[in-house]
Amino acid sequence: MEDPVREIPTVIELLTESPPTLQASTVEKFFTPNASFTHPFCRTLSFNGSRWLVLAIYRFYKIMSPRIDLQVKSVAFDQEHLKLYVTISQIFSIFIIPFYIAPVTLTTVLTLTTNPNEYRGYLDFPNDQGKSVDSESEETRRYWISSQEDLYQTTEFVKFFLPFGIGVSMVLVWHLFATIGCVLGSLLLSPITWAEENLAMKKEIREVSGRNVTDVAGHVVERVTHETSDIINGVAKSVQDRLK
Q1: Transmembrane region positions (predicted)?
Q2: 142 near 1, Cβ under 8 Å?
Q3: Which of 88, 116, 199, 225 is 20 to 30 A from 142 via CA?
């Protein structure tokens, strides 16, 4: 890929919705030979030839759901760290469960590389002139996928094995109890918060102990005033957002 943000929606469409031969060609063209794949239900390691496992996963994906409606919602490219973040929504129809479709949303994190040959020391991807990819200029720099990681919220990936809203309901109930547990924990363990705050205040007072009492008091008042102002501004912003 020369422009990952522009090209990745087409690449994903070819991987998930194209015939087997075209799907295989897409994997071979855009993934490095040692590419890895990570999913809540499966994982590959990275080794010479691991790209074949990536192809097998995509092929089984197509077998399980011959008809896939997929849409790329957003793409973000962290060029410094060669990370491509893609938000995808898809309707997954599992053929072994009649009349059931699973609308899911996920974020795919693609780790890119500009030199897919580095790991073994010889050329697997020469450019059109037969030169190494290292010799390409910034304007013609190409990117390959060295790893793919699919990230699902719990409420999303349970749809694959607990259909008809059963899994989602169970997760939501668990989330409710977990939230209640967090609230109760924060109340029961509030002495720890109080102790932490007091230790922080004493540390600040020690840091300014070389100054006179007026300076210390002024420093503490300034800190409390700043924190109070932040809280008030946050509440005011929240009220304004709700009134819109």
Answers
A1: 82-102, 160-189
A2: yes
A3: 88
- Answer with the residue of higher pLDDT: 205 or 109: 109
Per residue in 116-147, pLDDT tens? 765 544 445 555 444 545 555 555 789 999 99
Residue 18 is which amino acid?
A: S
pLDDT band at 187 (very low <50, low <70, confident <90, very high): very high
Q: How many CB atoms lie within 10 A of CB 171?
A: 18
- Domains of the chain listed by start with CATH number: 4-152 (3.10.450.50), 189-243 (no CATH)
Return the closest-CA partner of residue 151 out of 11, 31, 41, 36. Answer: 41
CB 72 within 8 A of CB 8: yes
The span from the CA of 185 to the CA of 108, in Å, is 34
State the amino acid at position 26 in one-letter form.
T
Which residues, including other chains, have CB under 8 Å from residue 56's CB and lie 6 or more apart? none
Reported as half-sphere exposure (CB side, CA atoms, 13 A), residue 207 has a value of: 8
pTM, two decimal places? 0.71
Q: What would the two tokens of residue 107 be?
A: 């974020």
